[in-house]
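Deliverable D4.2, example record:
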Amino acid sequence: MAKIGLAITTKDRPEYLAKCLDSIKDFTEFTCIVNDGTPYNDSVYGKFSKNVIQHKKNLGVACAKNTALRTLMQNGCDLLFLMEDDVLVKDLTVFSRYIAAGMASGLWHMNCGYTNGCNYDEETKSHVYRDSVEYDGGNTVVFTSDLDDGFQFFHSGLIQMTGYMDERYSKYCLMEHVDHSYKMVKAGLIPAYWWWPDIYQSWRYIESIPESLETRNSSIRSMPNYDENFKKACSLFMAKHGKSPLGMPDTSKDNILKTLETINKQFSIDHRPQLSAVSGG
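Output generated by the structure prediction step:
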């Protein structure tokens, strides 16, 4: 039976992490926490205190996420969930919903597109996505333009195939998740840039802590050297992939549907021999 694992990354926000952990207090699968900042009192971690990985010094977001993913893999987890400390789980069925969508579609990497105010139309006050595809069992996958990283889902086989996040992005605190997900596009595991898969109405199951959502954009942009770091992160992405992350070409819906059909045939649960090639067995 496939083993589920959840890893939460945190840095200098014990009050946020406490709320995050309270939202998953009834979660019974393997859970670990990676603290990339100042150590917290054990009371913050509660019942999860036995599985805390404390970095000796701040290494940056990409390094923290890699520690999280490696810890899940080393503990035998097959289905990996990565969550940031300012995210709340509103409904614990979210984990089974992502897994079911992966099984039906063959899309074994998805990001909740709505945790950080992304893919939201302020004028109409509505969550938006580019298109949707319905798979067997009523599993609908939507595709968003913007890629969010507050809550991510991976099959361990995809990490084995494409590797971990590029830790050079850690010095910029930006773009590590975009680069990582785009590697999966290039490997033929998700459809295309600007077409990031997510489950239908994921915002009903996950949300950002309200005060975090209110301050996130301003706090990120007020970081020292933000503009310079953003340019450097974009330059690294361009050096690796040939185009700026903001200048990537779009893909037509017809081509997306063809790619999704190929992915489904290769990696959905109805095609276990092909899936085992990704999962390593």
